[in-house]
Design goal:
- It holds the Pfam family FTCD_C.
- This is Cyclodeaminase/cyclohydrolase family protein.
- It comes from Adlercreutzia wanghongyangiae.
- There is one protein chain.
- The protein has one domain: Four Helix Bundle (Hemerythrin (Met), subunit A), CATH 1.20.120.680.
- It is mainly alpha-helical.
- The protein is 82% helix and 0% strand.
């Protein structure tokens, strides 16, 4: 049942998958955990009053999970031109200019992808907020675990944004990316921490 292909690739010396891909993968795992809570909730008389909302959360979580799995490959695809740009010759003024242009172009996707990973992870946390409160009490610990994993993926993906905006010449674009990154960290982390704390209280 356990497929270690991604883990083995991550552990190898290959440049991809790396931190971004791992972040997306962990985010997908968090989404799957939240979905498990939802699936253990639907169809139970005890939770009939939230059945419709749980079904809606399950649909959103499935879409988020699929998107995060797509972003595993998208992160690798974004890294390839970045690595190529860093490896370009810079012996002449013309070569240096070409290398700089290629690098600045590649940095855009290298920031956009981890930002999208972060957005998706915040959505997972938001689902965990609802499911931890209204989902099956038998799986409340899993809702908490989902929120914790989603926060970890959120923070891990932010590191890719940070390292890449540091090389951007376009200060305005870098500032926009930085602001969104910081907003996502604040929002997602606060919600995830609240879920964790509430789950701990219920289990204590």
């Amino acid at each position: 049942m356990l497929d270690t292909e991604f883990i083995d690739a991550l552990a190898s010396k290959a440049p991809t998958p790396g931190g971004g891909g791992a972040s997306a993968y962990v985010g997908a795992l968090a989404s799957a955990l939240a979905s498990m809570v939802g699936n253990l909730t639907v169809g139970k008389k005890k939770y009939a009053d939230v059945e419709e909302r749980v079904q809606s959360e399950l649909l959103e979580l499935e879409a988020t999970r699929l998107r995060l799995l797509e972003l595993v490959q998208a992160d690798a695809d974004a890294f390839a031109p970045l690595a190529a740009a860093y490896g370009m010759a810079r012996s002449t003024d013309e070569e240096a200019a070409a290398q700089k242009a290629a690098l600045q172009a590649a940095l855009v996707d290298a920031c956009e992808v981890p930002l999208e990973i972060m957005r998706q992870c915040v959505q997972v946390v938001e689902s965990c907020v609802f499911l931890a409160k209204h989902g099956s009490v038998m799986a409340v610990s899993d809702a908490g675990a989902g929120a914790v994993l989603a926060k970890a993926a959120l923070l891990a993906a932010s590191l890719n944004v940070r390292i890449n905006i540091g090389s951007m010449d376009d200060a305005t674009r870098a500032a926009i990316y930085r602001d969104e990154m910081e907003d996502l960290i604040v929002a997602g982390s606060a919600l995830a921490d609240d879920v964790y704390d509430s789950v701990v209280r219920r289990l204590s």
